[in-house]
Amino acid sequence: MNINLKIIFPLLLCLTISCSDKDQTDEALLEKDKLELVKNLDSDKISTYKFGKILIRASVEKDTVSTEFQSFKSDLDRIFNKVVKYDIENPERLSVLEYISIYHDYKKMQGFIMKTDEDLFPTLSDAFNIAYGDSISRKNAYFTGKEKEYVQNIEHAVLSSIVLLTKDLGKEVSLYECSKTKPELLPDSEIKTLLQFYRGFLFFEKKLHYLSEDEITRNINWLNNNKNVDLPYTRAIFKWENLNNQETHIAFHSLNHLFRGFDRLMMEREIDEKRALEDFEMFLNDANEIGLDNEIVWSIETYLYLKNEENEKAINTLKKLRNSNLLSSDDKKQIDESVEYIKNRESGKVLNGFYDKFFLSKIATKYMFSVLSKVDWEKVLKEQNVPHTDQMFKTIERLKDFNENLSKYTSAENLKETTRDIKSKSENLWSKAKGLVKE
To answer: Using CB atoms within 10 A of its CB, is residue 373 exposed (0-12), middle (13-18) or buried (19+)?
Structure first.
């Protein structure tokens, strides 16, 4: 019996270690992030936003799509005419009662909305052509095949950028739109590399580090193989008008290494930290080559100085960082504490908790949001002659108001407050409201 145990225990130990290693491979961890992304997309805000988009795209659907869709088609069209309406310049103002009625219909078809891919329906461009185009454009055939894939990819990418900084849609809806883009279906181009970087940044912000690393790695590989590609959009978005094309390439290459470094810094394996430090070194090499000198450069310099126990250099860069307008008073207090710690730091001590990887990544995230917040997306789209840009922005505003009011007027608290009024006006709506309060 003892002999058997001596044989079995080592075998079990080897099997456990083998399974653990298998779960920690790059491929396995990437798959875990993909599952986590799906969980992140299961929210009420995304559901109602998707509902609004399906209202628009399904409004010009000519085919059946499915039996379930056909059973909801008349309801979808009726709600579309109330919520979006073709007169986007003078949208109809809905009452509380109407929002409650719409919410009742939405709950009825929520299962269908959540499981249905909105890309089954014609593109937003097709819907806008029918609604706002001239007599000729209205007769145009809808996009199909690869052309449709390209158009809706661009639509998702544009919307993910536009809604990111809006108060009521924001990061959740931006992540949904970003998840709907498929860069692999786009031809190799500046648009594709910007989209992959943007996806990588959003995945990083949502702590989906392996998904982010995967996007950015493909970006870095493409940039390494296309050093002479023209990058006018990149230059415009990042306000690098003073850089020539070669310098723009180096600057964008550095940002990709920076965020891949952050992704790897947040991972748990020793190999990931080693890779992160290599990315940071590459970022600083690129930055120094073109003379970049900003908050992110000072942050990374500080981190590497601390790693190498170059305390005086670390203190000097922290003091530069402290003067940045990007930092809050709490951030500056944290830097002051870090400086005091470094002054008294014993040789060989690990990095302190004041200036750690989370504080470091927060500075980089603030920097990226400050860049994106200054982009006039409406102007950019118009300069690229994107059709129906005005209508697209007005529709987003309409969807934003719709989401906000639907949530506001259908909360359990507000439903209770308005039930008396509903009962006096409509017995039918009263029944609906009572049902919603119980849900």
So the answer is: exposed
